[in-house]
Design a protein that fits this description.
The protein is of the alpha/beta class and about 525 residues long. Helix 7 packs antiparallel against helix 8 (about 165-175) and helix 9 packs across helix 10 (about 205-220). The strands form 4 sheets. The protein has a 5-stranded mixed sheet with strand order 2-1-3-4-5, with helices on one face. The termini are far apart. About 55% of the residues are buried. It is globular and about 75 Å long. Strand 12 (about 340-350) and strand 13 (about 355-360) form a beta hairpin. Helices cover about 40% and strands about 15% of the residues. The chain has 22 helices and 16 strands.
């Protein structure tokens, strides 16, 4: 037991999901009832462990173990006190040591090693858990050595493009420019995705450390985090963490007395999905309309304010830390074929156990959704799983044994994207979902190119006729032609990838269209 003179540490998540389920109220009630019972507690607002069906998940630290109770609704708090939960007392919601729960034990948490474990805005807590050790090593390494480690780790962009990160680092290093920038894309717009948010809320210093390393490696002295507007909790956490990092000389002038200057600015997007595309994001950062630019030039040569810019997704950036800490060769031992390392997959939709699952590439879709997700929430058979966001691939059960691997998905003309996994039972209608793909593109298109701007409208109109049973054969042939035009004629992935959910629905669920 804790010593009587010590405050009892109680962890209540500040994560958006937990807060939406009453975590703020739970924290206040615990503090109030503890005071009334003359019990001294220290409420620590940690990130979520990613077991959303258990939120709000309350933990009590006893003998170096964190005894979890969940899900704790506000009205249950009083009963927890009656059951002496501050002493680890028995209660129907008692789960035991949180880190021994099977959902966590089956994972390989490298990017998420601290998420849920620490106070996210306490820099000392971050440092106690290996924080800033990699940055310190970086100052004793050359940029070429760091790039070589990332190359050996075979890190590829986790935002969806799967482009080798070492090439971006090397190209930015070699680019000529008096000023260079590091830009983090945290504009996590895909439906069913939340890994960027969870890191921003649960371990923001890891992003700051990774961006600083990228700056040191490429010769950049300034960084920008582009955060989506729908993440107010992440905004608060990142703002506080940046302030703390500056206060402790991990950002700003002469970092850690090394003579290296680097600072980070937080910018909030305006809700445009297309700003997840790198050039549209850069336009938005510059105060312009968020529309795509013609490439070349690439951002590594002419990016933010016309200067060389390395722009990566948040998970890509924080993946640098385990690579550099354990070494590229060790990191690359995780994974499958050419997809190396781990990836946070996000289980959402009609699934019993929704949340974050960080595992090496190569796990099958079936294993992910069954072993971790527990099947559908409704108990009905799984009919369809969409992988890769709203422009992702619709998978029928015959494909569920596929490994989650970049090349395996390319073979079926799909993509893993940002790791979003949305589960649907046998009540899903694939004709409606194919229509939605066009409708989504219609709403979110930046409007710059005709195939995307007009093609999405025509696609939605044709799908309306197909659903109504009008000239099915003729209209389905038109859909195929339109998909080809959008794929090869669009300027960016917004229009170019809209055919993915449409074609996969037509191919894998043909009975719903060819009646």
């Amino acid at each position: 037991m804790n010593k009587k003179t010590d405050k009892i540490k109680v962890y209540v998540p500040l994560d958006t999901t937990a807060v939406s389920l009453g975590a703020d109220i739970v924290a206040k009630k615990i503090s109030k009832l503890a005071k009334e019972n003359n019990q001294e507690v220290e409420i620590i607002r940690n990130g979520s462990w990613g077991m959303f069906w258990l939120e709000p998940l309350v933990e009590v630290e006893i003998n170096n173990e964190r005894i979890a109770y969940g899900p704790v609704a506000p009205e249950v708090v009083e009963h927890l006190f009656t059951s002496k939960f501050l002493e680890g007392g028995n209660h129907p919601l008692r789960l035991g040591d949180v880190q021994k729960l099977p959902f966590l034990q089956k994972q390989t948490r490298l990017c998420f090693e601290r998420v849920g474990k620490i106070d996210p805005v306490n820099i000392e807590d971050y440092k106690k858990h290996n924080g800033y050790t990699v940055l310190e090593q970086t100052f004793n390494s050359s940029p070429q050595h760091i790039i070589e480690e990332v190359k050996e780790g075979q890190l590829r962009g986790r935002g969806g493009a799967a482009f080798p990160t070492w090439i971006k680092l090397n190209s930015t290093l070699e680019a000529q420019g008096d000023v260079k920038y590091v830009v983090c894309n945290a504009d996590e717009g895909d439906s069913g995705t939340f890994s960027d948010r969870m890191v921003a809320e649960g371990d923001p210093f890891s992003l700051i450390e990774a961006m600083t390393i990228m700056g040191k490696t490429t010769g950049a002295n300034e960084g920008y985090i582009y955060l989506r507007s729908e993440y107010p909790v992440a905004k608060v956490c990142l703002t506080k963490a940046i302030e703390e990092a500056r206060k402790h000389n991990y950002l700003g002038k002469n970092i850690m007395g090394t003579g290296f200057d680097f600072d980070i600015h937080l910018r909030i997007g305006a809700g445009s999905y297309v700003c997840g595309e790198e050039t549209a994001l850069i336009n938005s950062l510059e105060g312009k309309r968020g529309i795509v630019r013609k490439k070349p030039p690439l951002p590594v040569h002419e990016g933010l304010f016309g200067k060389p810019t390395i722009l990566c997704n948040l998970i890509t950036m924080v993946s640098l830390l385990p690579i550099l800490r354990m070494g590229g060769k060790e990191y690359a031992k995780f994974g499958y074929e050419r997809s190396r390392g781990t990836n946070p997959f996000q289980l959402a939709g009609n699934v019993r156990y929704s949340g974050i699952v960080e595992v090496p590439f190569g796990i099958t879709v079936q294993e992910l959704v069954t072993d971790f997700g527990g099947g559908t929430f409704t108990g009905k058979p799984i009919k369809n799983i969409q992988i890769g966001g709203p422009l992702g691939y619709h998978m029928s059960p015959s494909l569920f044994d596929m490994p989650l691997d970049y090349e395996a998905f390319l073979k079926i003309e799909g993509h893993i994207g940002h790791g979003g996994v949305v589960v649907m039972d046998d009540t899903a209608h694939l004709d409606d979902l194919a229509r939605y793909a066009f409708r989504f593109c219609e709403i979110e298109s930046c409007g710059k190119c005709t195939p995307c701007r007009i093609g999405s409208v025509r696609g939605r109109e044709i799908m309306d006729e197909i659903i109504a049973g009008k000239d099915r054969a003729k209209n389905l042939a038109l859909i195929e032609e339109l998909c080809e035009t959008m794929e090869f004629g669009s300027m960016c992935a917004m229009g170019g990838m809209t055919p993915v959910p449409v074609r996969s629905a037509l191919k894998n669920f043909s009975e719903e269209f060819y009646q």
